[in-house]
Recover the amino acids of this structure.
């Protein structure tokens, strides 16, 4: 895939992914701003409010009817956390030109619809409709409340909050209950005007339409987009290892404990990324990992146990479910499995399995437009330009010694344990 990237307007960059294998085209408009506790709630609420209607299509019913007329095109909003950035926008999928009747072209009307929703929302007396804001506030508050009801997700959130205390990485993409409740139609509209005026906008297209036509459609759809001082996108700050490891314990009405562990990848460099990705895969990143095979299956210390490598932040986190009285044993064994990887205790089947899993994951990106959109959005806002094929090539050049060396720099920083009330 010959990826093309170009600036098409002030603060607007287009990533063009030519592909003829899909029967649909995919178009994504994504604003990006630094993730902040002060703005996360407003940004998370803003997109569902914008999605309620434009001046041209003022209701969700009108939007749905328009999509039906466009061969059942798909359109939805997104709110994501990418490193220490928050991205918000719209994503559409629509039938490719070669499959429409009578040569109907859908890119232009879909792009126009997206531009109208972002640039020309329904307002009343110069602000958002209060009924739209209140309705979406309730939905977002339900979503935030739902996190604590899913104790596994809640524990993962709390671990990052404790591990990255005082850092943007600890902020969730939805903001906070208090932040959402404090918003009004007026304050949300003020935040919206700041967003569309100053936030970087990443546009991603995947399909068979020529790039010249895509660029023309996007530029036309965004002609009403105000552009003032575009805020630069700062890269994510690597986590600094705490002087001493800490343990945080929280008690709720739970019957199963949740053990989260945060590790710092000390002296993290870009050259460590692929060795750490492979090392994490063998540690806890797959169903053939040491955590799954030993801590869960062989020793039965956890109901589940997995690990995630956060490249931008230079950390590895472990998520596990344990009996309350097995906390110490599980904690000790998880650390022991990490030490085994760092000592190079990697069987041939583990090594080949990890390499195969990483290669398959990158190769599979080419089979999904939405996966490609998510990947290239991350690349764009992190200022990286590696393609999946280039990352596979990097991975195949990594040695076991490099993996062991990189994993030997991984040290326990924060432990979070969610237990039951006594």
């Amino acid at each position: 895939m010959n990826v093309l990237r170009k600036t098409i307007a002030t603060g607007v960059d287009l990533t063009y992914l030519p592909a003829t294998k899909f029967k649909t085209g995919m178009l994504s408009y994504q604003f990006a701003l630094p993730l902040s506790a002060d703005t996360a709630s407003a940004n998370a609420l803003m997109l569902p409010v914008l999605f309620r209607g434009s001046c041209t299509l003022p209701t969700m019913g009108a939007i749905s009817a328009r999509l039906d007329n466009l061969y059942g095109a798909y359109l939805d909003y997104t709110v994501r956390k990418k490193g220490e950035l928050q991205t918000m926008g719209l994503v559409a999928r629509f039938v490719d030109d070669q499959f429409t009747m009578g040569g109907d072209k859908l890119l232009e009307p879909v792009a126009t619809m997206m531009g109208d929703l972002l640039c020309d929302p329904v307002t009343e007396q110069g602000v958002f409709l209060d009924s739209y804001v209140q309705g979406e506030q309730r939905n977002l508050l339900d979503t935030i409340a739902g996190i604590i009801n899913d104790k596994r997700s809640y524990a993962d959130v709390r671990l990052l909050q404790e591990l990255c205390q005082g850092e943007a990485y600890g902020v969730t993409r939805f903001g906070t209950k208090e932040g959402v409740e404090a918003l009004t139609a007026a304050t949300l509209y003020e935040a919206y005007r700041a967003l569309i005026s100053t936030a970087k906008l990443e546009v991603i297209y995947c399909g068979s339409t020529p790039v010249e036509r895509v660029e023309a459609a996007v530029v036309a759809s965004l002609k009403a987009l105000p552009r003032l001082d575009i805020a630069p996108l700062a890269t994510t700050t690597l986590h600094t290892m705490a002087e001493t490891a800490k343990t945080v314990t929280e008690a709720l009405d739970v019957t199963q404990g949740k053990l989260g562990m945060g590790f710092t990848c000390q002296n993290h460099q870009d050259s460590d990324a692929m060795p750490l990705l492979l090392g994490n895969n063998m540690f806890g990143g797959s169903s053939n990992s040491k955590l799954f095979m030993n801590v869960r299956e062989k020793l039965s210390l956890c109901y589940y146990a997995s690990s995630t490598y956060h490249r931008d932040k230079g950390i590895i986190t472990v998520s596990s479910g344990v009996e309350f009285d097995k906390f110490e044993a599980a904690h000790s064994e998880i650390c022991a499995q990490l030490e085994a990887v760092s000592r190079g205790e990697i069987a041939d089947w583990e090594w080949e399995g990890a390499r195969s899993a990483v290669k398959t994951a990158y190769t599979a990106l080419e089979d999904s437009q939405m996966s490609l959109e998510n990947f290239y959005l991350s690349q764009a806002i992190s200022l990286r330009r590696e393609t999946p094929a280039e990352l596979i090539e990097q991975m195949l050049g990594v040695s076991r010694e490099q993996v062991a060396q990189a994993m030997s720099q991984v040290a326990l920083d924060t432990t979070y344990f969610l237990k039951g009330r006594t």
